Known about the structure:
Shape: elongated
Mean pLDDT: 89
Structural class: mainly alpha
Strand order of the largest sheet: 1-2
Amino acid sequence: MSAAPAFMSPLDQALTLLAEGRVADAEERMKQALRQATELHGEHTAGWAAAQSDMGNVLLRADQPAWAAECFRAAVSVPVPPGADPQRRLGYQLNLGIALALCGRLEEGAEALRESRAGRAAFFGRKHVGYATGLEPLADVLLRLGDHAGALEAIDEAVWIFKRAGHERAASSVALRGVIMVANGHTGPLFPALKDLPDPLVERVGTFVAARIQRDIDPAAAYRMIGQLAGALADRLGPDHPATIEALRSLATEAADRGQHAHRIAALEQILASYDRQDRAEDGLAAATDVAEALSDARETDKCLLAYEEVADRARRTGRVDRLSQALFDWGLALRNAGRPEDAVERFGEAVVAARGGDDRELRGQVIAAYGIALQHLGRAAEAREALEEGLSVLDPTDAAAQPARGHLVALLDGRDCGCTALQAAVEEAFREFVVSRVPADLLARFGVRVVGNNFVVDVEFQREPGDEELAKFNEVVRAAHAEFSRQIAG
Length: 491
């Protein structure tokens, strides 16, 4: 790798080295720059403070906030000469507070940021963007300290100033305000300020919220927050705006993680309706598939099968046989999972016909192999052998579908049972034991489980009314069992 150009400033050189992944070289370049500044200006001078600050900025980017904080602290220790511009020192102080907070020293960070706010108020005035710049990080630290009232006071000031100035940081401040409001137990709208922001900033609010819900927010609060954001974006930008669609997608993901099937389905149906309004057939097909999968996860069997029928109709209208084959295959899997093996074989057969007309070799092999296994389970041995041999001739030997297809063909040729029934019984018993052994002994009067297709259907009767925590734990254990044993019945 080439060295950073000599005509660049030491800071820019170090940042270039960081971008190349040369962290040690970047740090050494800043140490050298600090030594040079000390020799040229002396310690505790303005030039020395600037070099300390530059090194702190590099260290922050190198994810070393504790070391960076000491650099910024050194820079702040240099007093501003009478009549000199204090803005540099205000920046050092702000960065000191941010660095301290990043390394978990929240009280110290809050104190530094309070001092920064006071200094900025005196220099800029309390209506200036320069003052507001120090409010957002202060609000963030106060939130982490649990001082919701103080955090809300600071962020309200910041939002008002940034909105008034049309500043881009209005977006991140509005997002942070929503986080603070939800942490404070606010039950009303979280994003009323969206109505006063220009469209580009409204879009960015969605991006900041999506990043925020990944950290430092209780999952239940994050779920409510993303739900409110989706509604606010739909009201402000319209239901078909990309930012609205992205928020709905995030909501569906969060709902799936929490087992909130109705909310997940509703969000996905809104996305599907949007794509239909825009005549986006390919996106609509993908969204319709998502809806069908969500209905399957919700055990809404009848609605799920109707949804997969609609997916197949949409795929047929695209005129793309690979899309149609995949849709028919998915429909067949849903029918198999619903305990309708004859209907599943019919859909698999249609998927095979479509796949043979396409150019997706992997899909063709997988569909034909699944068709062969389904035929074998129905006792149609001759047809099953033909399909399995064809599927294996197409599939890569390392493909995940090849192993079960090969096992079924060998069993067929040897005149043996494929063993799926015995495997199913063993998995059912292992699933039951997994759950029963992980919940209180006096909780369950009955717990049964059976495999239907590639899904588990549980039958539970409680011996006594479970508490909220016990019920949450029980549901968590059942979800873990689903994840643990689904792999054993796949294929």
